[in-house]
Amino acid sequence: MEEQQQEHSPKDHYDLVILGASGFTGKYVVREALKFLNTPSSPLKSIALAGRNPAKLHETLKWASHPSPPPPLSIIKTDVSDPSSLKDLCTKTKLVLNCVGPFRLYGEPVVSACVEEGSDYLDICGEPEFMEKMESIYHEKAGERGSLVVSACGFDSIPAEVGLMFNSRQWVSPAVPNLVEAYLSLESEKRIVGNFGTLESAVLGLANMEKLQELRRSRPRRARPVIPGPRPPKGAMIEHQKTIGCWAVKLPSADAVVVRRTLAFLTENPHGLPGVNESDEQIQRRTNFWSTVKPAHFGVKIGSKSLLSIFRIITVGVFMGLLGRISFGRWLLLKFPSFLTLGWFRKNGPTEEEVRSASFKMWFIGHGFSDSSLVSQGNRKPDTEIITRVMGPEIGYSTTPIILLQCALILLSQRDNLPKGGVFPPGIVFGPTDLQERLQENGISFDVISRNALPG
């Protein structure tokens, strides 16, 4: 394997390369990928690991393979600040899985190289500014070059996207949804510890809110879906959601932004995005799928059974909001993350035991109308509630690798059914595929909890 580390002939070609494989999340992505390498019916026959430090990549491979001996994967020294090394990387692979964040700092060179060479690109980004900027700059060229660029293929934001579609599809005509709110509950037998990279991305996002607003103002307005019924009121800051037994507060995550982008693409393309070489059967499947997805207003809240935990969340949010506005405050947040986030983020991340003990539940509470004809009868209130739920293991190091790899396997095995190229959110690309079924087979469940008539 040492010989493979430095020398690569131009004929080398990998199904996928994991970039940033030795990082906190990257090493878990490697471990997940090895489960599908050269297994029956898997399209994944060759993997390479890429990053700045070959020695760390070798250690990652040993860790991810344990207790088995490491397979003879190629190790490619790649620096995202070196365009030539990225170009070399992209000429050798069909697909890059990018785990190098914060993406605002390190993501664009990777996207640029993939687009230039016509390689496909998936990442686990949860940074709205980066995603929207990449679409603005590279969407047209990616379409021409045949490079499919899809961000947010981790916990940000596929549980929200696929979860919303799952809830939406329960509204069988003539029923229609008006509002679907997601309530995220993080659970653990130990303690919940977040990835430092996630905190870093959030801090940078706070620092660049004005740039995001400028970017949005500079672009043409996207099509907005027609949602039946009146726009729902904002509601109280703290909510007691009796239906699922939790207190909740609004969560300023990327999920709602990503969902809105998918709904905008769907409004512009009511039958979804055509595949590069679809069969007639697939065209019918895609058209049928999107005919069952009904748009709705969407928001995300974080919930807890303890009101004290909600106040703790608000306190951390205030700290981050105030400190994130000034450079010294951002330095403090990133220098002393454990203290200033009340222990939720640590530079060294969670332990293996903390990862194994953690899980999530994401409830989707949909309010709408039992019959779309009711909407025309003035400002009538919704009369129906449908509750669905998505559940899975720890979000950052278990669920995210599961999702990323299933997206990669779909891309490798069903490329003809996916768009030729462009920069898209994951929902519009993977919605009509078998992604939900694949996630269910790998420990992420989707359930219908209840259907109720609301009091008049």
TrEMBL record:
It holds the Pfam family Sacchrp_dh_NADP. InterPro entries: NAD(P)-bd_dom_sf, Saccharopine_DH-like_oxidrdct, Sacchrp_dh_NADP-bd. It comes from the Eukaryota. Belongs to the saccharopine dehydrogenase family. Transmembrane segments: none annotated. This is Saccharopine dehydrogenase NADP binding domain-containing protein. The lineage of its organism: Eukaryota, Viridiplantae, Streptophyta, Embryophyta, Tracheophyta. GO terms for cellular component: lipid droplet; mitochondrion; plasma membrane. Residues 17-150 form the Saccharopine dehydrogenase NADP binding domain. GO terms for biological process: glycolipid biosynthetic process.
